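Example 5.3 — CobQ/CobB/MinD/ParA nucleotide binding domain protein
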Amino acid sequence: MGKGHNIIVVANPKGGVSKTTSTGHLAMALGKKAKVCVVDFDRQKDLSKMFFRGEPDAFFEKANIFTLLKYQTTLKETIKNKYGVDVIVAAPSLRDFQFIASKDIGITLRLKEILNELDSEIILIDTPGSGSYETTTALMAADTVIIPVIPELWSIDTLRDFFKTINETISQGATIEKIYLLPTRWGTSKESEQVHTQLYRTPEFLKKLKEREPRAFDLVPSPEILTSIPFSKTIRDRTEAGEPLAENTNGKAAFSALADKIISELGLFSKV
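Solution (predicted structure tokens):
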């Protein structure tokens, strides 16, 4: 996989925080600068529909992340390409993942093994909006975690609980080295300003958690706060239409800058 493992999981236990929007548009922005694969690990398959709008369920059920994990399809059979990005879609059959994983725990460790066979420089994984076997499985494969947050649903308690989950996965063998908080749908309201201030206090908050409960938080890397993605009707509309962001728009510029930051952090060289 080029330089090595660059598996980035986009996750937050809360729904409605622009995980899928962030994953999809970041993947498209990165796809112009590096070889990228994006994985939809959410049975709602919103990311899959973002890339393949209008396709019937049969299109997604034939070959997807679940068939791949069950060795029913190969990577070559499963990967599709759109907008310069390799895509591994999800399917409604993922609803059975928890049942299968409870009987065969090995399937939760298989994701990283399979993704390591890709020649992608960066792999992004979109996860469900609640604590789930899918999220845990993705975290076990992750090298980096991006946590999108929006002003309206900001909760330090949710972040604390998710840090604890990350700590548990690292204690079980995950190799998560970096965590980023990504402010999304950010405006100029007083609420946005207040939450942004709190975000920058998160490293200190985690430090105090480690002092109080070292066994629960000691392994969690100190988070870095990324530059915010602005609130934009254009981003929302393009996401719903399954289209890339238009050139010379604030949204396009924001995701391009985010892609440059990620590439720099990973020590890669942009192909443009």
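Remark. Residues 78 and 221 are 33 Å apart (CA to CA).
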